[in-house]
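Q: Entry one of two.
A:
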Amino acid sequence: MLDKIKSLSHKRLFEIGLTIIFLAPIIGMFLPFNSWKHAIIQGLMYGIALLIVIIASDKKHKNSKR
């Protein structure tokens, strides 16, 4: 699974990460959870999005050093 994510271009990964970051609060508003479940789900979404953006940044910097 991680290989499939890393095979995408850095621009596409960055777009996916930012989309998750921007949509996480909107998705959270429509899910009927109590505050703890809401916080955990939001944290997981932000964590995954952050990892995707970091992978995109790493790919871009590896390509620019060549």
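Q: Entry two of two.
A:
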Amino acid sequence: MAAILGRFEGASRQHTDAGDGPAERSAMTCFAQRVLARVDRSRSADPAATASGPPPPGVTPLSARQATGASVLLLECAFLHILENGTTDQRSAGSPASHGAAVIHALGQAILQEVSHGGLVTPAGNPPR
């Protein structure tokens, strides 16, 4: 997951809006870290332990637009990483393609959980704090 996060951090510098400053990029990176941590926890021996806890103090919440952009970019980075490098997870049987699809599925589920329950995304229609 560290390689996916590294790719995300590099890509987010190029793909953020002109109005997004360091605080927004930092919040997007925090969002990506929390999502990837959820994926790791969901694939561990204790899949019930997927909660992220409260966001770190001082991190600016993301607007729905920013969270959507971060989610799409994170999925793109994961997909490209899997295409270029495969997966290193040997826990499940099956082809590399089914393995990669399982990682992307877990990432999608983690994004949904983080957006719904993570506390780092402002509800739709409300401006970020």
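A: Comment on entry two: Residues 82 and 100 are 6 Å apart (CA to CA). The two ends are 29 Å apart (CA to CA).
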